[in-house]
Write a structure and sequence with these properties.
Number of helices: 9
Radius of gyration: 16 Å
Structural class: mainly alpha
Order of helices and strands: HHHHHHHHH
Distance between the termini: 41 Å
Oligomer: single chain
Largest sheet: none
């Protein structure tokens, strides 16, 4: 709230809310990161991730990608595997926006590997949605649907289903097929 008062920026408010949400989820055990609380390394890591999100929101995808890459390195050093995986997912989305789908799929695959090493279904759900987006962007709608369906099922099982994202994705597929 102080950042909003000082700058009037909704982005900074969203950053603060996202950081609070991350900490709440971490405390509830959704992430699997091992820290007892957030220290400077964790704050820096999340700052890099959310700064990337702000740049991505303004279609500054090269800058966003650099921030996501930095966040991944910081997350790995800080022992935050969930955020490392999330950084890869966000990087994949920036790569996709840059038309670099094969690299995006590689990053999403690495996020899957991290999720598997942690046995973390929340990160798996995020990675599946990301892969679905990449497949859809490359014209592979049937394969994308498999990923979106799997992500929705995982989310329902663990209580973090994103029906809105699913509905938007299915609507996008219908639109691309000329059904809308």
């Amino acid at each position: 709230e102080l950042a909003f008062i000082l700058t009037g920026s909704d982005d900074l408010v969203q950053f603060g809310q996202a950081a609070q949400q991350h900490e709440g989820q971490r405390q509830q055990g959704h992430h699997g990161d091992q820290q007892e609380g957030m220290g400077m390394a964790q704050v820096v890591t999340l700052s890099q991730l959310y700064t990337g999100d702000i740049h991505h929101g303004f279609a500054e995808n090269d800058t966003a990608l650099a921030q996501y890459r930095a966040a991944r390195i910081s997350a790995k050093a800080a022992g935050m595997p969930y955020v490392e995986g999330l950084s890869l997912i966000h990087a994949a989305r920036a790569l996709s926006a840059l038309g670099r789908i094969p690299e995006a799929l590689d990053d999403a695959g690495t996020a899957f590997a991290i999720a598997d090493s942690m046995d973390n279904d929340e990160l798996r759900r995020n990675a599946r949605n990301c892969v679905g987006e990449m497949l859809l962007a490359s014209g592979r709608a049937a394969d994308a649907i498999v990923q979106f369906d799997s992500a929705l099922a995982l989310g329902r099982r663990i209580g973090t289903a994103d029906e809105r994202f699913y509905a938007q994705s299915m609507g996008d597929i219908a639109w691309r097929k000329g059904r809308v």
